[in-house]
Each structure stands twice: as C-alpha cells, then as structure tokens.
Amino acid sequence: MISEMGSEICRLLILLTLLLSSYHKLCDWRGFAASLVEDFRVPKQSGIVSAIVIIAIEALTALMILSGEPWQIVGLYLAAALFLLLSLVLARVLYHKQRVFCQCFGRSRYPISSLDLLRNGIYFFVAVFAAIVDAAIALTWLEQAMLFLIALPIFLLTIHLNELQWLLQEQTHE
C-alpha cells in the first residue's frame, strides 16, 4: 500500500508539472516561441510551430495521465521520455556554457543551471517509478486530496531550486 501511495504522489507530481508547464507556456506562447528561436537555435520559421507542438505534447501527456488505465501508463512513460529529452537539451546548454533562461514555468530570472538538470532528472525517475508501480488503487476524494497536498510542496520546491539556492547564498553572505 505504501508503494502505491508513493506512486500516486509521483503521478500527481508529474501531472502538476506538465499541466502548469504547458499552461505557463500557453500564456506566453509568443515569448516561448521567441525563446526557442533565440536560445535554442530553432529556425525562425519553425519557432511558433515548435512552441505549439511542445505545449500540445505536454498538455496531451497530462491528459493521458489523468485518463486512467491504460493511457495513464503510456502518459507516464511519455513524460519520462520528455524529461529525458529535455535533460539532454539542458546538458548541451550547460556544456556549451550558454546563458539561457528557463521557460518551463514562465520566464525565469535565473539562467539554466545544473539545478534545472537535477530537477528534470528527478522528474524522469519519478515518472518511471509511477509507471512501474502503477498505482491502480481506488482512493477516496479525501485520500486523493491528502496525496495532492503532499505532492504540491514537492512540486513547488523542485520548480524553485534556483531561487532556493539564491536565497540560501544570500543568507550565508549576511
């Protein structure tokens, strides 16, 4: 039962990540498209189409995870593949020492760092764990809400790793 609950928390974490990521990109889809062209060298004529495709893939993957069996498992493995692909892109940016700002959850004030790569690595393993354990348990709405309340702060911590690092550095310099 504990592994199933853990799997459900992981599923909720991935779901939150995909839903909010696609939402923030959709809210500023022109800025996201411009970022793809400027920062990631996507050809200018493909920037808007690429942005729309990425947003659609994230949103559809979230819907797959929400839909239940058998699409939930497919969605979790697709999410893992997306996080792996994004990790490779981030690793390339870090390797070439490019100064690129993350657009995952809206425009960031901080350039991409190894913490973003760590976050995506965590999301990759979380998605794989949730798919493997396959929490096909029936939960009441109260149990589901409690698990969501566990997943939410984990999500918030992982998307704000750069800000937390900055805050901790500021505290040590005082």
UniProtKB/TrEMBL annotation:
Membrane-protein topology: Multi-pass membrane protein
Span of domain Methylamine utilisation protein MauE: 7-131
Lineage top rank: taxon: Bacteria
GO biological process, one term: methylamine metabolic process
Pathway as given in its UniProt record: One-carbon metabolism; methylamine degradation
Cellular component annotations (GO), alphabetically ordered: membrane
Annotated InterPro entries: Methylamine_util_MauE
Localization in the cell: Membrane
Transmembrane intervals: 47-67, 73-95, 116-139, 145-168
Primary localisation category: membrane
One Pfam family recorded for the sequence: MauE
General function of this protein: May be specifically involved in the processing, transport, and/or maturation of the MADH beta-subunit.
Protein name: Methylamine utilization protein MauE
